[in-house]
User: Fold these one by one.
Assistant:
Number 1:
Amino acid sequence: MITVEHLSKRYGDVLAVDDLSFTIEDGHIYGFLGPNGAGKSTTLNIITGCLAATSGDIKIDGHDIYEEEREAKKLIGYLPEIPPLYVDQTPREYLKFVAEAKGVKKADIEAEIDRVIDETHITEMQNRLIKHLSKGYRQRVGISQALIGNPSVIILDEPTVGLDPMQIIEIRDLIAELGKKHTVILSSHILSEIQAICEKVLIIYKGKLVAFDNIENLGKTMSEGNQIEILSGGDPLETIELLERNTAITCFEQKEMIDGYNSFKLTTSNSNPYEICEELFVAFAGKGIPLVKLNPIKTTLEDIFIELTSEEDEDALYGGPEAIEPAEEKAIPEQEAR
Ligand code: ADP
Ligand code: MG
């Protein structure tokens, strides 16, 4: 279990991590989701003991990352955003170096290397120079060094960045496999990636934790936001009648007329607003009502981040079933991360 309490990190004037508190339970794959610059790498570098925090407490299975550094670090395997590979070595040589550095007993080193090579499926590449490996294989070597010493938690910072689609699928499958034996924290700025692999997700935006939930609940939040703008040439009552008939339209509001057309903004529970556009097109055409504009607006990840951080949504924060300590009232006014 990892507990993070009131973690903050300041780089000069930049508040990169702003009072983060959360708990990671054993045995799940967690997604750490946020746009570029949100503070993901900073947080992961601190949790793994690679970077000092400005303030806050971190415990790995009860071991304080500063006071009991050795014990805490032993429990975590880390693949940083930029993996520390020595490209003039072979994977096998490199893994030997890592095993020694991590303090694996001399007698156990060869078996440990065999184990991680097998687990990351790099057997055929183990004696080639790392510089001659594809990016996908290099990333596997990066993951294999995180597995040396068999730590209970594996932390991977944006492991699929720069890979081609086929390599991405392979790395995702590998991560899913790792999730059966380890607690995994996977950071990404891509929602679909987190949705594909993770069971639970923490969303971080501008250094703050804005949501922590099961992936299904987050999916619901996402689809609730899809909207469609329409301009109808029919009279308002006729238009409203047609909109009310579509059960996937959860609500709509009439906007100001535009150039003599009735304007409406619809919200749909369908995660694909294009499907509703098709249905509306057919329904309006059937009644002979011209639709001169039919504009689906898919909620972007950025929209979700903004919505989650907006003040009126504050009740929805920390809405998940996770045991997160309620944030205490802050005595000091929040500082802008600028
Ligand atoms: P992410 O991994 O989510 O993209 P980072 O943790 O890398 O975010 O960065 C968070 C913020 O901290 C950004 O505004 C970034 O510019 C800033 N930052 C990161 N590392 C440094 C550093 N070494 N010095 C100064 N600012 C930094
Ligand atoms: Mg990063």
Number 2:
Amino acid sequence: MHGDKHLMNSQPARQNRQSGLAPEILEVPTTPYPDQRPGTSGLRRKTRTFMQPRYLENFIQAVFDVVREESGDNLAQETLVVGGDGRYYNRTAIQRILRMAAANGFGRILVARDGLLSTPAMSAVIRTHGAAGGLILSASHNPGGADADFGVKFNGRNGGPASERVTDQIHQHASGIRCYKTVEFPDIDLGGEGETFLCGTWIRVIDPLADYTALLETLFDFDALRRYFHQGGSLRFDAMHGVTGPYARHIFEQRLDAPHGTVIRGEPREDFGGLHPDPNLVHARELVDRMNTDDGPDLGAACDGDGDRNMILGRGLFVSPGDSLAVIAEHARDCIPAFRDGLTGVARSMPTSTAVDRVAAAVGVPCFETPTGWKFFGDLLDAGLCRLCGEESFGTGSDHVREKDGIWAVLCWLSILAETRKPVTAIMHEYWRRFGRSYYQRHDFEKLDADAAQALLADLTAALPKLPGTPLADSRVALADDFRYRDPVTNFVTEHGGLRILLEDGSRIVCRLSGTGTSGATLRLYLERYRDDRGRGDLNRVLAPLREAALELLQLRERCGRESADVVT
Ligand code: G16
């Protein structure tokens, strides 16, 4: 990472579009909203909640107040990056944020052309330009539209999601807010690169592809990947009308010469075409169907709205996120130039399958287990303790940025295919033969009554101490607790990471409430069973005893009126 935050004092590259104007800075009185505590990843709410008067402004002002404190009251020396996934309300929110950032006295703002910046690209831009942080306007894989979801994430100086300490501070500021700062000023033109000077702030419209693509070129062998496509290798990439469309077309079709049409649903749309931009077997149906044909492409992949999640498919085969992480770890040194010097360690969130643990043990590096949320990987990556991380929620990434990175994950898989010259199915079967298989499923029970779901988890928590030693699903409970994490770098302790019941045969039942939903509560139930059977078992059959035991323990039917999950991935 190299910082150039002091460059703002040098001459601008282009003529100032608004020289001479000195609009008055306004301090607008406001009152706090009670619900502005960020969740797993930023503040995610219904779009109409964000459209209420002062709702967005309150939260943004709280973020700026925290950045101001952290910068020693010297925002004039700081750079802020702004962009989003193109969903409904993105453009309106960006213009408001630009006015507020100028009124708050940031020295420089980098805003993405057309307001479109993927989450991993945001991380790259922050790190490349030494920015104090960035605001990503996205509700990730949640649907977009006036009656759908919106969100704001703040990433800090290392390019990663704000830590719990910082989100607590933001919440404190939002809870006591009395006014926010802004200026009256016409909308900034985001249609092309250029600069505007406003209240002492340079607002520069940047190419959202440039820094990110340049970074990826240092990690992968683009010549080898181009050869892969020239020699007939094939990819079908579903951008789901999210922000990755322009990135994927540029990187896969233009830089790597993949045939035109490799990228489908490549135009960002405010409502993601009316679908959920969620890369899973349900929402990426068209891609899944194509991959289930005999003449389907070698590799199928999809990314979510803001480009940090990814799904990987072979011909007729879904690669679970836990297996994808493990396979990338297995082939890292031999197939991916960025990892030629090896891995220092790997990390996964607690509910993520333990597949990567076995690869880490074979490679001889530690595997860290963190709470859910990419923010928990930041300290480990910054300290060089691990270089590769992943989560069950379709997230994979490395130390090149401090976010999960969908396009990066696809490039990892393309590199493995190009180097091994084997299809995805062969790679997976060889991996299962060597390491055995973690049969894994996540069951989501959505829109539950929040109080009922909280009470259910509270009762299960109270019952945990009695479980060790009792028989459960063909085995016996070895350990039952509420996951507690001590960050090995900062010693910061995070409680309530999820209830986990570990069985003597290595199986696990994990359950927690989602921190990213926007209506009611979503209960996530994670099931995992390890078998050294070359991966030949039937997933549903292998997991059936565990599933039944979990449903009996949770008493979901009796307490929440639910027989089965809304989504199983
Ligand atoms: C966010 C976080 C991830 C986390 C996921 C699921 O992803 O960045 O680290 O795993 O939420 O969270 P939950 O289970 O609490 O809903 P994204 O892609 O939605 O920003």
Number 3:
Amino acid sequence: MIIINILYVGIDDTDSPDGMCTTFLASEIISKLKDNGIELIDLPRLIRLNPFARHKTRGNGAVSFKIPLDEKTDLAKKIILDEVERLAMFDCDNTNPGVIFYDGEITHEMVDYSFRAIYSFITIDEAESFAESIGAEVHKFKKGRGIIGSLAAIALPLEDFTYELLAYRMAENYGTPRNIDYDSVYEMDKETFPDTFENIDYNEGYIAIEPKTPCPVLYGIRSNSLDSLKRAKEMVKVLEPMHSYCIYKTNQHTDMHIQKTESIASMKQYGCYEVVGTVKNTPKIIDGGHMFFYVYDESGEIECGAYEPTKNFRKTVSNLRPGDVLKLYGGIGEQNTFNIEKFQVLDLNNIKYENPICECGKRMTSAGKNKGFKCKKCGRKIKSSEKVPVEIPRALEVNKFYETPVSARRHLAKPLCRMDF
Ligand code: ATP
């Protein structure tokens, strides 16, 4: 058996809303390492962390990869740190890169830390003391906030995972409209979905592989398999030169941010949960197009939201009735509202109670409190005040899942086409 000593590398917080992307910076490092005869062990990893982290630029992603620990390690470390120095967006106040080198075993404590980075908040000091406690080498640039994510990206286990192929632009094209042949994206999706997914938002006519920011990414294709990813890349035509591309193994679309909880009362702000609840009221839409309703269980109740960007999902939500039982997935944001990512209908309240129909065919009206019903047409009276159950047709189906559209979905949210994974 060949035992390879491994150097784990974690990199985070190198980009800003005006440019750069930590995955591109990492791919530049990987190519420089290669030029110097240093090959990665396995694919690099793109790890999405707590979606509510305060200082994130966009999707709270950090990158990690492994290289052999050998006589070239010092050179590798120099290349990595020099590239961060050269490419990170230091002018932005909110860009505080952090790099971690680690050459030991991945311990339980490290795994726990990485889940904490998905489920809760970690301070720079906490991350630094933890890195010291495990003997990791810490490199902080400016405030060095990136060490929080870098450490987590190194240690997070990936039981369920997906791949993302990220294609990058030539520097001279940054900030200009991307030149992607959309027809070829539709063709690619037709051929490779559901092995690849999140390519297109058909409801919104939105090409989801194309970022809308001025970053170096030309497009990103997400997939369950490397083969379909490579096939997809061959099919997508771009009408501008491509700088390079890199395939990442990721925790995107695995629902790793979702914690199962037994009770509504145990859910906390900035947590993401799977919870069962009963619909309390008919969903209401407010100015701005956001839709809200409450769900409850025996422990308490919470307001659920389907926000305007979830577009047609709100139409689905509007079909809910009090008494429907749902399994809901989502996160509790700043307003303390549970933002729904998807839900499964466990039970539908498809009965409503109405006044009885008279023998003459006319619906009866109340004859007064506890005085039964009377028919205004033929004058017939009945003593019972019990309304009669009437089955109502429902647009929703029991057991079926309903999800937000691609354009409004979090990186970590598992789409329905992956629910069997
Ligand atoms: P992009 O997706 O474009 O790469 P980003 O959204 O990943 O950008 P970063 O620039 O990486 O944003 O900034 C996120 C910052 O939040 C990093 O410094 C990271 O270390 C930190 N961070 C990540 N997870 C947590 C957490 N759980 N608690 C506190 N800080 C965190």
Number 4:
Amino acid sequence: MALRNILVEGEERLRKKSRPIENIDDRILTLLDDMAQTMYENNGVGLAAPQVGVLRQAVIVDIGEGLIELINPQIVETEGTQSGEEGCLSIPGVVAIVERPQKVVVKALDRSGKEVTYTAEGFLARAFCHEIDHLSGTLYIDYPHQIVSTQEDEEK
Ligand code: NI
């Protein structure tokens, strides 16, 4: 495994559409492993492949309940709305309030190529929406949002 460099907002690749993954080969498995290491190293709760410069449809999420890897994820159902705090490793040091669905159903493939379905609510639903948005080049700042803190506000 290796740490990968996280692209920061302003970088063109963050705004491109990612391509579906047709073959889950060693390169993709290494990508997923590297993404996990990179996310944990940066204390993130999610990471999408385009954030490390790879325009393929892979995202990972871990909100403290274990690592979830999603290949070619699709949001197939949404329900309700929630308002809450959100950050992005590509927009370092900023936290903002963004509206998201309260509940989502996501279909994807896991690393073995098996179809998986996740029904998520609350913060996990938010994390799925945020990461899957990266695959179409969308960042949370594209939505109405209210910045609640920046790194300059913190003591460190
Ligand atoms: Ni992000």
